[in-house]
Amino acid sequence: MPFKNPAAPPTLTATGLGVSYGSRRVIDSASFGLAAGTVTALVGPNGSGKSTLLRSIARLHAPDAGSVALDGADVSTLSPRDFARSISLLAQSRPVPGGLTVREVVSFGRHPHRSRWTGQDAGGPAAVDRALDLTRTAGLADRPVAALSGGQVQRVWLAGCLAQDTGVLLLDEPTTYLDLRYQVEILDVIRDLATHHGVTVGVVLHDLDQAAAISDHVVLLEDGAILAQGTPWEVLTSENLSRAYGVRVDVTVADGTVHTRAVGRHNAPRAAVPTP
Question: What is the pTM assigned to this prediction?
Answer without folding.
Answer: 0.87
